[in-house]
Design brief:
This protein is of the alpha+beta class. Helix content is 50%, strand content 31%. The chain has three helices and two strands. It has helices at residues 45-60, 65-80, 83-101; strands spanning 9-24, 27-42. β1 (9-24) and β2 form a beta hairpin. The two termini are 30 Å apart.
Length: 102
């Protein structure tokens, strides 16, 4: 989950996924499935603060946008090894980079 206003954490949701939606040529069909627990990771304020600090640092050291984008992505992937969490890291860092340039 992307929740930069909450604390970073992970937890198990015991109800987890309770249904599946499948697309057909006539629309969507929902099917109930037995509840199964899932592990949820929250990209929160601590993660966002680290990403923003990295973005500001890139601007302070006069990295070009392309250099900063590549470096920020590499840092995010190295830290999370997950596409969703890496994208959240990149988004926060690039926003901070742009604000620092102004």
């Amino acid at each position: 989950m992307y929740e930069p206003n909450q604390h970073s954490r992970h937890y198990i949701d015991p109800t987890g996924i309770t249904g599946v939606r499948t697309k057909t040529k006539h629309g969507y069909v929902e099917k109930a499935v037995p509840p199964a627990p899932i592990l949820i990771f929250v990209f929160g304020m601590e993660d966002a603060a680290a990403a923003r600090a990295e973005g500001r640092s890139m601007a302070e050291f006069h990295y070009s946008r392309a250099q900063a984008a590549r470096f920020i992505f590499a840092e995010g992937w190295d830290k999370y090894h997950d596409r969703f969490l890496t994208r959240a890291y990149v988004q926060e860092a690039e926003d901070a980079y742009e604000k620092a340039l102004q």
